[in-house]
């Protein structure tokens, strides 16, 4: 019974190299690794190459960035950017407990947005105040705070 298939017919011959069945196409290209994150400058470092000073205050969840582009808030992984041309004022204050920086952006249309960043201690909060005031003064000029 050699040479017969399961139902009594002849068994198919194996494929020759020229007759190999084709797959679904070439394999996909390997995934490229994600580029490394861009390191951020520490709080209070001035970068005048791009037009002016900057400010950064950050904690585990939130961040406030003030630079030549405007003001950016990051809250829980979500970022809100506000350009200087839309900003009327940027008031800020410390919390009642004395370790949280609270910053608001008031837009020209009256809307406002807030972000709070926890400082490690009261001394860090006071340092942030000392660094933030001149940076806002530089960008806001004579606008009210």
What is the first-to-last residue Cα distance?
98 Å
The counted number of beta strands is 8
Q: What oligomeric assembly is this protein in?
A: single chain
Strand order of the largest sheet: 1-2-3-4
Task: Assign an overall shape.
Answer: elongated
CATH topology grouping of the domain at 46-140? PH-domain like
Class by alpha and beta content: alpha+beta
Helix content: 10-25%
Taking all residues together, what is the mean pLDDT? 81
Which strand-content bin applies to the residues?
A: 25-35%
**CATH architectural type of the domain at 46-140:** Roll
Biggest β-sheet description:
4 strands, antiparallel
The value of Rg in angstroms is: 31 Å
CATH structural class of the domain at 46-140: Mainly Beta
Strand-and-helix sequence, N→C? EEEEEEEEH
If you had to describe this structure to a student in words, what would you say it looks like?
This protein has 145 residues and is an alpha+beta fold. The protein has a domain at 46-140: PH-domain like (Roll), CATH 2.30.29.30. The chain contains one helix and eight strands, in the order ββββββββα. The chain has one helix spanning 122-140; strands at 55-58, 62-67, 70-75, 78-83, 87-89, 92-94, 100-107, 112-118. The strands form two sheets. Strands 1-2-3-4 form a four-stranded antiparallel beta sheet, covered by helices on one side. Strands 5, 6, 7 and 8 form a four-stranded antiparallel beta sheet that branches. The longest helix has 19 residues, at 122-140. The chain starts with 54 loop residues before the first strand and ends in a 5-residue tail after the last helix. Residues 41-49 have low confidence and may be disordered.
